[in-house]
């Protein structure tokens, strides 16, 4: 046994209480983990919480200059790949960059309308943020720009308080302010290494939420698709449907014809690309094609079809500065901060998830906290240059990946294409009909209704499915942020429920082995006479200590009744398998003590098997082990059964 | 192997994917738990959540008449012991009942003042509720009446919005309304079997909270103790101390002399009883003695000491009905409901905890959900008969227990004594000085400052101690309900933190055995070459799946670096010990899949050891086992190592 002296000393002092020796068979002692100071434990705990990925490991054993280079590469990943960049890579990036820009331009205009912002803001948002991301971001395939969910949430939250038609300047300023706070929130999550906050949006929640949001977004498009002029400003399904049918006299058949025509075209191209992934460019090019075709059509028919609403005049030129439009006081500050945090967290979730998906396809890793900083800084910069919330978009990234993008240079190419559009091509959009934008949005969000995942949730985990349903209907019928809130609460409640009502299993011996397993799962597992072996499947906390105490007593009662009915050997010992008790708090310690006393009064012995390191430490510190006596803690259930049986034989 | 046919059928269909057979050694198959329908699983889950104590087990296999009797006994526990009641028991109950009434009368008057209610309400509250509890309650030692914490909270929450001096009728009505809602809340927790809600107030939280509340209560008594007339209506420590020193000109030396005299007397008696538990009656009788002595003193000196404020006139007679004073509408309804829920949950926590403490001392069990119904109904009835919130009081129950109470008849005796007081003795309290009530309150609450428990928390669990400190200072500096809220959030956060950042341990083999244990805890445990054996110590959830994936990859990276540095055998296989993974959700399943793919790309094998029943079920349902192939799941780590090693040997 190779021991270091420090450790031996520590154990010697407690040996009498913990070490167990027996002549008849080898019984192993349960050991305390090596002694650590509070400071040391705290440091380790903090580093596990905030630095689980050990971000500084690259810097170990390096020269100063190398360290500086590594730090530079860490802050600006562009330095990692720039030295090896060549013409072959450029060719791939050029193709993919142009492909995504053909998607980005119509999407930018459409999503800005979704957030009730002027269409030009959507184009601005596809220019500055991709440039910043290409400097800071660590994903090679992320296509950056505005996304539907964040646009919808920003639009719905701001419009609830302010009318974008009556106070457009205030509305625009608040959108930039919300973007600024979204960026600050995202960057601080990254800097403070609190990235795990976004983990609380479970997949089930997100499936329901995005599905609900997609329905909401699609319904909003009925305004454009039917040509309705006076539409409700509400988002919920009921007022929207009422508004659609009340304004039937405003429906315009020309708009409907045009809209559904292009919708069918776009959905068909989407279907083709889904069927044959190689034809991804069919759906990627379709939005721009639709915009061009519909614009030409409306231009040609401009003298006969006044009923089709068009985008109209768009200003030429690059992003104007907007730092002076940010509000840092006044009555709407709280609204802007709230909107910023919610859109920030949603767009972050999408960006990180998309980045991770494509990184795992190409087998590289994306550093979550770094991505948060990159996305956050990109939004802060965006808010000062007339951009609203942007992130890594799923549709753009998928097209980018399929088009063969190799590095973030494709984002730079896209930004350049958008720049050209901004500088020279804006007048061409004058006759672009709004109805085509509606069709583009519907096609984009319809893929977000992930009924297959929902079905899988139903099949695998009913509670996850419930969380999914709640967020879906919460978004549809109540409101977007409340639906999200309900879903998060259900997800957290699920964790707490698992902790509050943990499983307790009866274990039995698998004949011919020292293995003890759940007798429900393993039919060959046999109960050991006179023993009741229970496994507690959760940490013992204040939230479940009362329950566990009552539940264990009920197991004992039921076992005794069972023995009585079958004339079996009387129950003498209860073994608690603590393998899955990964933590214990003061209430849990009290419960164990109490339980031992209550069982003692009924002449039943209670012993523990395999307490893990920190549980053992706490048992020791709280002096509970003393009450358990010399033979109260065993390394395995098997050794406990063997040792206790041999003692019983010795003293009949 | 004794198998039932149903089970065999079920397994046969999956045998190809799960069962593992090997010629060289006996490898046990991991089995799925027996198939259950969704409805069956749901029923079992619901019964674990709401009926963990199987409350109907007494009714099994009984005749109809017996069932009726048992139901009657269940609803009115008085029928359980009444048939066996005899004179010996009555003698004990008479003595203890009179003893607690001597405590209950001065306490009732004092606590009512703490809630800013007329003193007579405190006596009313010691009459009706004990009678109702003695019919419904299942604890034999609970002494029922108003308690300090709930009185303080009700007083502070109501006074924040309404002045009890300017609108005494409204204030009183709201206090009754709050009591009504407290009762409704408590009873519904019991009826809906949601008793576990109070488990979320952890012991750490309560130690801090009651300590903080005790300090607040004591500071409030400075008003009475110093004889200050114009006192702040705030509760926090800072405004109270400012008020005390600003009003120095109102300090009255006669009051101070009298107050501190009796305070020293009361504290001395308390000290004596603490030292010698047999002399419990010394501290039990001290409050009434102080009231009598001080009343006589003030009466004798009534012509010379006008500065000492006295209780004054108290109406004679039993509780007047107050159902007509309840508010069920109006602007203060929300306040009454909020106050009711918070005082309800606090008084419930105290009542249940006290009941459980004394029940465990006498080795009987208290049914939490039934107690909640009893306490709730008692408060509903109380609110209609001029009583405010009551529960099982710790001080009264302790005296009751020490004085030898055997059944709840002692509560009936106490109620009778209070009745006599109400009918005949009220004029005697005219000259009772308020300062003595202040001294009684301070003596009562000073015992609630449990610094020993706080020290134990510090020693055993630093995070529990932090929760304790936060609730203590939250109550002192912010407000009583907010302090409580902060503490609950910290406690829940602690659970979530444990789930979000679970431990992952490296396991090693204990030589000569098939046992694998944490190499940090067991120094003799040796790593197995070419294997990395990791134990995940938590369910795998959406909240930790990303973390676990990254952490496991980091373990692999570190292991590979370590092997490189030491020229060891190359890593070939990672075994995940799933014993402590007590649940998995869809995100967790995706993570396992992803992890397997990522490791495969690095030519590393991933196998699972000992997945528990429901995890195995989900692995199976989500078809992940297919991707793990025939040899991906083993019953124990030992078998996995043996089997995989033998395969490697076979194909060198």
TrEMBL record, chains A, B:
It comes from the Eukaryota. Residues 521-644 form the STAS domain. One of its GO terms (cellular component) is plasma membrane. The chain crosses the membrane at residues 170-194, 200-219, 251-267, 279-301, 332-354, 412-430, 436-453, 465-493. The keyword Glycoprotein does not apply. It is a multi-pass membrane protein. One of its GO terms (molecular function) is secondary active sulfate transmembrane transporter activity. Belongs to the SLC26A/SulP transporter (TC 2.A.53) family. This is STAS domain-containing protein. It comes from Glycine max (Soybean). The lineage of its organism: Eukaryota, Viridiplantae, Streptophyta, Embryophyta, Tracheophyta.
